[in-house]
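Researcher: I've been going back and forth with a colleague about how Amino acid carrier protein might be arranged in three dimensions. Neither of us has a model we trust, so I'd like an independent prediction. The organism is Subdoligranulum variabile DSM 15176, in case that matters for your notes. Sequence below.
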Amino acid sequence: MALFQAIYTLLWGDLVTIPLPGGSSLGLSLLVMILVPAGLYFTLRTRFLPFRLFPEMVRVTLSNNKKTEHGLSGVQALIVSTACRVGMGNLVGVVAAISAGGAGAVFWMWIMALLGSSTAFIEATLAQIYKEKDPLYGGYRGGPAYYLHALFHPQKHRRSVVASLFALSGLICWCGISQVTSNSISASFENAFHIPPLYSTIALVLVAAVIVLRKNATVRVLDIMVPVMAACYFFITVFIIVKNAPLLPGVFGRIFAEAFGLRQVAGGGIGAVIMNGTKRGLFSNEAGSGSAPCAAAASHIDHPAKAGLLQALGVFIDTLVLCSCSAMIMLLTPAELTNGLQGMDLLQTAMHYHLGEFGVVFIAVILWLFSLSTFLGILFYARSNVAYLFGDRWGAQLAYKILALVMLFVGGLAAYQFVWDLGDVGVGLMTVFNMIALFPLAPKALASLRDYEENCMPPKS
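Model: Here is an independent structure prediction for Amino acid carrier protein. You can compare it with whatever you and your colleague have in mind.
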């Protein structure tokens, strides 16, 4: 436990503290010091890809949605990665950021999405370049474990230590996330419907088991679930925004004022505003953690850069669209109704204000769908990591699925802080190991981008 706590503190604790005016300070964790400079570096190296090639991201998404017998389509890979991004970070994560950092934290989440989009492009493109055939499920597999292997140990018959550590960190992280998702579901269903956690958890585990224990049911279910639930959440939010349109100038003014405002500096809170928005933005969009490349590698696509553009768009969808939706729901609610509330209580109170009892029920149901999709998505990610560590064995694949289902059940009944921290440590270690490969291998992804722009993009009119 002491070793575990030391690793947690190293990854997430404030390693460097910068004094700010007004008695505030800006604490920088190891992950922030890795991911923010990486985002800046890759944004510069891709020549501001998120802004310059946004129309191309949309065009590639619309033109790569045909299903194929040789693997996932590009859009299916995007849906799988979106299933994992669109989860706790979009609901409870945004609530936590605003609770701790105020409205200004939303601005810094937007900034992290713009920077993270370039990082997502690099890692997804590398996953495509180094993917390999999947003899168990068909199609392809890959991700950071595979391009780390190519970097450190090109011989096929031996495993790389660093690649193995990444794969193990991912499996640990996703077990922790399984526990977190089910706990949030049981809590929200108890608040909304007064259903005991045991019953809602059993229902969740049974539904998840039926899907993940079948060979290739996960992608078929996510193909339907993710677009529907994301669209429902988006349009409900648009209704709330239109209904409260006169308040929007004040909300945006508050976001920008609190992101840079003198009141936060004078009150000693500007550091909390910046860091809560930054940390939650990194947690939500997952860019740099090495998760989404596990889906990107599975797509059958005619150019590696297309997979990168699809995943870069996924960061936009997650943070600039869906996280902003959650933020608007809360910031358009009178402050006197939400003062002192946190987590799901805050979000459900805001939804009750906007939509009455329907709002409370809707947010409970949408959280159930978001969390189930997250669980299904991480089990898809786990396929390639399990195969890297244990080889092409159905027994190993089945054993990990059963372990994840057990964690899903345990998490629904009680919140164990150790397991929550286990997920944070897992994703932190994944990020560190993934970044070890991204910088030396980035020239390959950048060369792929140049080739795509020169030979594959339609001529400008």
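Researcher: What would you highlight for our discussion?
Model: I'd start with this: The chain has 21 helices and four strands. After that, consider the following. The first strand starts at residue 16 and ends at 19.
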